[in-house]
Amino acid sequence: MLVAVAKHLGLLSLRLADSIILPLNTTHYANELEVYVDTVEAAAATNDHDLSFATLRRSIVSLQEASAALDSEKASAEKALRKALQKLAHKRLRRRFVRRVIRWIKKHLGLEVDPIGPKDAEPYEHDHLLDHSLKMLSARAGDVERLEKRWGKGPLHDLIQAAKRVRKVNAKLAKFEQGFISEDGIRSRNWYKHLGVAPGRYLGYGATTLPALTEAVIFDRNASLIRLEEDRLIALIDSMAQNLLN
To answer: Which residues are registered as beta bridge partners of 186?
Structure first.
């Protein structure tokens, strides 16, 4: 498992070298939720329960639609930021400019940052623009507005606007997984808070998807508890969809 995690983190790091948007696929996750529900329904049928999770499935569809909308914004925001970077930097300096942006992003994600080469370390006429534009990726909204007023319209203004969009998209992506966290946790072991996936009740560290709902169906076999767990998932998923749309 540790090897798989290390490989996954390695792939994330590699993709960050080519992408300004966090390489997190919310749509794939949202689609997988349907498969998880299929698994729960199959388990219910095995236990002679005729259960339908139609309301939960509708919530999942809403999350898929919200994620698809975010996918469109991801592509558009990244394109706008790259275009703004190209406008701002001279052609011979463009790669250097983008490399500095990527190093800054990786640093603030806690990832290993490539050493600065001799050419990148040399000061040049656009350093003041670089400093201000990089601040846009983490500045508070009020700071961004003040800097917009200071610099006015033009290439830097376009970069600020694009960076604001990227920052907003990345914030949604970074918080997506947290949407499955329930303060009440999983019944019988509430130290596990993630209702999307967690170690199974009798599986040691083996993973169970939709653990609270799955175990209510397989082990507890209590209709009221099953509906309670379904409702908890629906509330979380609806909130996640809304967060992606806001």
So the answer is: 189
CA distance 221 to 213: 10
CA distances from 243 to 81, 128, 192, 212 (A): 23, 35, 23, 23
Higher pLDDT, 94 or 192: 192
Q: Which amino acid, 47?
A: N
Q: What is the pLDDT of residues 67-87, one digit of tens each?
A: 999 999 999 998 888 888 777
Which residues, at least 6 apart from 216, have a Cβ–Cβ distance to it below 8 Å? Answer: 187, 222, 225, 226, 228, 229
How far apart, in whole angstroms, are the C-alpha atoms of residue 108 and residue 102? Answer: 10
CB 120 within 8 A of CB 150: no
d(CA 222, CA 97): 60
Residue type, 179: G
